[in-house]
Amino acid sequence: MIRALRFLVRNWPLKVAAVLLSTLLYAGLVLSQNSQTWAGQVPIQVLNQPTDAVLVSTLPAVSDIRYFAPGDIASRLSSNSFTATIDLAGAKFSGSNPYVVVNVQVSSIVQGVQVIDWNPQVIQIQLDPLIRKTVPVVVDHGTVPAGLQVGTPALSATQVTAIGPESVVRRVIEAEAQVRIQPPGLDVDQEVDLVGIDAKGEVVSPVEFNPRSVHVRIQVGTELTTRPLPVNPMVTGTPGAGYQVASVSVDPPSVSVSGDANALAPLVTIDTAAVSISGASGTVTQTVGLELPAGVTVVGNATVTVRIQLRAVTGTQDLTVAIVPDGARSDRTYAFSTSTVTVTLGGTLAALDALDPTTFVATADVSTLDPGSHQVQLLVTVPAGLNLVAINPGTVTVTVGASATPLPSPSPSASPGAL
């Protein structure tokens, strides 16, 4: 009995490991015999794509998905039962090395299905840094039908921003708006999407533009002409109380217009869209379009900048104010040739309306005058925001006399040693 027991426990770790290995091999054999393969394809979805990069690679589809599932579930599986993803969080890339190797993860959204293998499990992708570049806008109107003439295109924007992967955007030299001239000779007036063009004149993609489209206007006719016309700014409304228009300017002061000769003949100016100054109290600056007659287009930029400068309305006000002596002595008398004068103040109407006449006086400096008659210049302190226009009269005669009331005698003081 003891000998048998010793035989069982001898080298027991090896015996246990052998049992476990056998169990695992058996389980693998069972799984391999019961696993199935999905014959369709599942597109790869991208997770956490960097905001400063563009994925320029074409992602392959995942196929040969091996899975284990009960028979009743396996019969109902479709491509929608599986998800394939790559996670780009923390992907390291640069303009000099845009290639990144990532793992493909596949799982099933159906409970009870266990995915055990798929192809491919690792792929290489290209991440280009996202860049922006300003490019000019050009118009390609194609071949003009016989007998027609086209004017210079007018665009809502002459420059746009190209946005996209660095390897693509660096090739873009212009954004092209493609239009076609129709045989009936109809004017072009439409919103056109932009495409990127390289130095060879070929379309490049993927690239986006901001704005993604421009408005194109092209005059089409049989007898077109172009001539400059002054711009007439149209100002409407009334400024705020106490303000008036000081000046109106427009930049540019003139524009070149194109159109049929008969349409241009009666024109002497081109009006702007209305610019309102209702309630304004400062300078008003607006960029506005032009009011163009039918059949007339602007050569170049179709907007102008109107600048309207306002100023406060000014006026004058006469005040009758009293004369008061400045620096008068108590032992003198002062008599003025007139007790009041007329003071004229100028300034804005708001400042004049705010003036309190009861606190306003004219002063005469009598501090150095001896008895007798003297001509004294009057002084007026003008409140802030106002200016002195005139004092009438500007000088007055001041007669100085001795005071009838004697000065008080000094109080007697006790002599030294007095009790």
Which helices and strands appear, and what pairs or packs with what?
Blueprint: H1 2-9, H2 12-34, E1 36-38, E2 44-47, E3 53-55, E4 63-68, H3 71-74, E5 82-87, E6 99-103, E7 105-108, E8 114-119, E9 122-140, E10 149-150, E11 154-155, E12 159-165, H4 166-169, E13 174-178, E14 188-197, E15 203-204, E16 208-210, E17 213-218, E18 220-221, E19 224-232, E20 235-236, E21 243-251, E22 254-260, H5 261-264, E23 270-272, E24 275-276, E25 284-291, E26 296-298, E27 303-312, E28 314-326, E29 332-336, E30 340-348, H6 349-353, E31 362-365, E32 372-380, E33 386-392, E34 395-402
Parallel strand pairs: 2-5, 9-13, 19-23, 20-24, 28-31
Antiparallel strand pairs: 1-4, 3-9, 4-8, 5-7, 6-9, 9-12, 10-18, 11-17, 12-16, 13-14, 14-15, 14-17, 19-22, 21-27, 22-26, 23-25, 25-27, 28-30, 29-34, 30-33, 31-32, 32-34
Using brief descriptors, characterize the structure shown.
RNA Polymerase Alpha Subunit, Chain A, domain 2; seven-stranded mixed β-sheet; ten-stranded mixed β-sheet; disordered C terminus; mainly beta; 419 residues; 4 domains; elongated
3D structure, described in words:
- Helix content is 11%, strand content 48%.
- The longest helix has 23 residues, at 12-34.
- The chain has 419 residues and is mostly beta strands.
- The chain starts with a helix and ends in a 17-residue tail after the last strand.
- A hairpin with a 5-residue loop joins strand 14 and strand 15 (203-204).
- Strands 3, 6, 9, 11, 12, 13, 14, 15, 16 and 17 form a ten-stranded mixed β-sheet that branches. It has a seven-stranded mixed β-sheet with strand order 21-27-25-23-19-22-26.
- The protein folds into four domains: 34-120, RNA Polymerase Alpha Subunit, Chain A, domain 2 (Beta Complex), CATH 2.170.120.30; 129-220, RNA Polymerase Alpha Subunit, Chain A, domain 2 (Beta Complex); 224-312, RNA Polymerase Alpha Subunit, Chain A, domain 2, CATH 2.170.120.40; 314-402, RNA Polymerase Alpha Subunit, Chain A, domain 2 (Beta Complex), CATH 2.170.120.30.
- The radius of gyration is 48 Å and the shape is elongated.
